[in-house]
Design goal:
Elements: H1 12-27, H2 31-45, E1 48-56, E2 63-69, H3 73-79, H4 90-97, E3 101-104, E4 117-123, E5 132-138, H5 145-163, H6 173-181, E6 186-189, E7 195-198, H7 200-206, H8 214-236, E8 242-250, E9 257-268, E10 274-282, H9 284-320, E11 325-328, E12 334-337, H10 339-345, H11 353-375, E13 381-389, E14 396-407, E15 413-422, H12 424-501, H13 510-540, E16 548-551, H14 553-570, E17 574-579, E18 586-589, H15 590-606, E19 612-620, E20 625-632, H16 666-676, E21 680-686, E22 690-698
Parallel strand pairs: 17-19
Antiparallel strand pairs: 1-2, 1-5, 3-4, 4-5, 6-7, 6-10, 8-9, 9-10, 11-12, 11-15, 13-14, 14-15, 16-18, 19-20, 20-22, 21-22
Helix pairs in contact: 1-2, 1-5, 2-5, 12-13, 13-16, 14-15, 15-16
This protein binds adenosine-5'-diphosphate (ADP).
Length: about 700
């Protein structure tokens, strides 16, 4: 039950003020008006630092802040964020107890800077349950007499308004229900956009209790700022009628962006103050639809641009193709053609009747080709050989036409592209190929004839080779026989000559002796020739086999020197032998090695008039080869003759008046013998300075 301490008498100065307030309260038609008059009066006349009036619509409902002075919006909202069913809230307790209470500042439910504490004074009719609280932030802990007076007088006024309708609206319950039933947010605000009345939709968007989630509080705070700015801007527009604007808000539950169309109207409250009634209409979907429409329009424009550039590109592609191309629609009508096609299917600038006829003929040929293409049904491509005519020159143009059907997304025919390729070159190639084949066949026949002839010649040659081989063998046999037949009587001649020279048949006169000596010398020369011919024929006839034995080089050279001693003695030459270190024993044909060295040494002695002749024997362990080199300071051999002298009967000077004797067979025999030993004879010579002939042969014959 609301009860107050007996009121102290008012000082004379405040009597007028009390009277003025009482008059104001009497004139008020709404609880909100009452509350506003009270909270505005208190700071001026009761040293209140701030004041507020909260009330409930019905028991258990949340409190509503009817009016406040000296408090910001958030503080006002916090003041009303409880209900009398909230037993833990200290203000609810005051309401239940119905006794004024002072909350020192450290325990005050809502601190106000500079205040000692907060007085919470129940408001209502005396003896009845309070309908609200008067909250006063004072600088003393004593309940100011003016506060108690105001609470005592304003309480019954407020209670009366409460019984006649909802406190917050200041209108009827029906009115409240009606505006709550409006699906669009509806608000009554002051000119700065501070809400005085809001329907349920508006509250959902613009209000949040202290127990609301952080996200919702933030969204609501943002919405309040945007909304207040929009209302303030509508109010400052100064237009008396209805103003319209778009307000972007946030859905506090989903966090989605919403777009509202806000229609604001300036109105006057019963107390004469100006206010704004704003109705918000959710046009988010409309906005989205507009946006989507704009987007699809932009896309349409882009597609159109793309199509235009595609067409442009297609034109360029067509023009860049050297072969004629025609694009026809599904009925066969030409839609587009490139320049090479125009030369065939359009009348040339100065074309006469003949050109006209040719173009018509080309056109007819193409139309009949296209008719075939369209008749083919499913086949996507069609080829045909057409015979066109050059409209200018009248020359026949054989072409291959390839028509491709262009199908739409649904598989329907949207066009036909026909490409013409010149077959002139292909036909020319085919003709040349045919000619080539003919020539090739002819050539093949000739080759066959030539091959047969060649085979015949080969056979002839083979037979001749056999005959030659037989003839060579016969020749060798003949030479061997002849040599033998020559040697026997020649040896007898030489023997008898020798006996005569030695005086076996009596003393000889000087001319006799001279003639016999000539017979002896010529006979010996003849014997030498016969021996050499015999050697060559034996080698060629394969009748000079290898006789391998072990021997040592120094001993062999000693023997050679001994045999040549008479000739060396007759010459004025210095002949020396040089043996290399570690000459190993040799397994080879001793007789043949000796014969080669004898030959080389006798040549050296023959072709050297003065100076020295050196015989040098060495061994190359790396190749297991022995070398015996006969080096002289004689007449030397010109480079041009150095190959030639190894051939049969070849001498540097082969004139009948030559200075040196010989057969020209010695070196060719040496080469053959060295060959049989698995070696070779090499020569290094400088004309006028001397020569070096070297026999190379292996220490052991290699297996063949
Ligand atoms: P020949 O019986 O004529 O000596 P060879 O076959 O032995 O036959 O020699 C052929 C020719 O090679 C000789 O006639 C000579 O012209 C030249 N010849 C050979 N050995 C020497 C040499 N040591 N110095 C210069 N010329 C040489």
């Amino acid at each position: 039950m609301v009860s107050y301490a007996p009121l102290a008498p008012a000082p004379a100065s405040s009597v007028d003020a009390r009277l003025a307030l009482a008059e104001q309260l009497l004139a008020c038609e709404s609880a909100r008006g009452c509350a506003r008059a009270v909270v505005e009066w208190l700071p001026a006349h009761a040293q209140a630092l701030a004041a507020a009036c909260v009330a409930r619509e019905e028991p258990g409902a949340r409190m509503t802040c009817l009016a406040a002075q000296g408090l910001c919006e958030a503080q006002q909202a916090a003041l009303a964020a409880w209900s009398d069913a909230d037993s833990t809230h200290p203000l609810a307790d005051v309401l239940t107890q119905a006794v004024p209470r002072f909350f020192p500042k450290e325990r005050a439910p809502l601190p106000s800077p500079g205040a000692q504490g907060l007085f919470a004074v129940p408001l209502g009719r005396a003896g009845a349950s309070p309908v609200g609280l008067l909250l006063v932030w004072a600088s003393t802990p004593e309940l100011p007499a003016e506060v108690a007076w105001v609470a005592g007088h304003a309480g019954p006024f407020l209670a009366r308004q409460a019984t006649s309708g909802p406190l917050a609206a200041g209108g009827s319950e029906l009115f409240r229900r009606i505006i709550d039933a409006v699906t669009d947010p509806v608000l009554l605000t002051d000119l700065e956009g501070r809400a005085r009345l809001a329907n349920a939709r508006a509250e959902a968007l613009l209000m949040a209790g202290p127990d609301a989630s952080h996200g919702r509080r933030r969204a609501v705070h943002l919405n309040q700022r945007v909304f207040s700015a929009a209302v303030a801007s509508s109010a400052s527009g100064g237009q008396p009628g209805v103003s319209w604007r778009e307000v972007p808000l946030v859905d506090p539950v989903e966090g989605l962006d919403l777009l509202f169309e806000m229609v604001s109207t300036r109105v006057y409250e019963p107390d004469g103050r100006e206010a704004m009634v704003s109705v918000l209409r959710n046009v988010t979907d409309l906005g989205r639809a507009t946006q989507a429409l704009g987007e699809s329009y932009r896309r349409l424009r882009a597609t159109e641009r793309e199509a235009r550039s595609e067409r442009h590109r297609l034109d360029r592609v067509l023009d860049s193709v050297a072969d004629p191309i025609i694009l026809s629609d599904p009925s066969g009508v030409t839609v587009m053609m490139n320049e090479p096609a125009e030369r065939l299917f359009s009348l040339p600038p100065e074309g006469g009747r003949a050109a006209q006829r040719r173009v018509r003929s080309n056109h007819a040929t193409f139309v009949s080709f296209l008719a075939n293409v369209l008749d083919t049904g499913g086949s996507p491509r069609w080829r045909g050989h057409l015979s066109l005519v050059d409209p200018t020159s009248g020359a026949t143009l054989p072409v291959e036409a390839v028509a491709s059907k262009v199908l739409g997304e649904g598989g329907e025919l949207t066009g036909i592209v026909t490409l013409f390729q010149d077959r002139g070159e292909a036909l020319e190639k085919a003709r040349l190929l045919e000619r080539l084949k003919e020539v090739s066949t002819l050539l093949e026949a000739r080759v066959q004839v030539a091959t047969a002839e060649l085979a015949e010649q080969n056979e002839k040659l083979r037979r001749q080779a056999i005959q030659l081989e037989q003839a060579s063998a016969a020749k060798s046999q003949f030479l061997a026989n002849m040599s033998h037949e020559f040697r026997t009587p020649l040896n007898a001649i030489l023997g008898y000559t020798n006996m005569l020279l030695q005086g076996v048949s009596g003393e000889l006169t000087a001319p006799q002796k001279r003639n016999l000596t000539r017979i002896d010398s010529n006979g010996r020369h003849l014997l030498e020739v016969i021996n050499e011919i015999l050697d060559i024929t034996r080698i060629e006839a394969g009748r000079m086999p290898l006789h391998l034995s072990d021997f040592v080089i120094p001993e062999l050279l000693q023997e050679v020197m001994a045999e040549m001693d008479p000739i060396i003695a007759r010459s004025k030459l210095t002949v020396t032998t040089h043996l290399g270190a570690r000459l190993p024993p040799v397994h080879s044909d001793r007789q043949k090695v000796k014969q080669v060295v004898l030959n080389l040494l006798s040549n050296a002695l023959k072709f050297t008039h003065e100076g020295t002749v050196k015989v040098v024997a060495e061994y190359q362990p790396s190749s297991s080869m022995l070398t015996i080199c006969v080096e002289d300071t004689g007449i030397g051999i010109a480079p041009a003759d150095q190959e030639k002298i190894f051939e049969d009967f070849q001498q540097v000077d082969s004139s009948p008046t030559r200075a040196y004797g010989g057969t020209g067979l010695g070196l060719s025999i040496c080469r053959r013998l060295a060959d049989m030993l698995g070696g070779r004879v090499t020569l290094q010579s400088t004309q006028g300075q001397g020569s070096a002939f070297t026999l190379h042969f292996p220490r052991r014959p290699r297996r063949t």
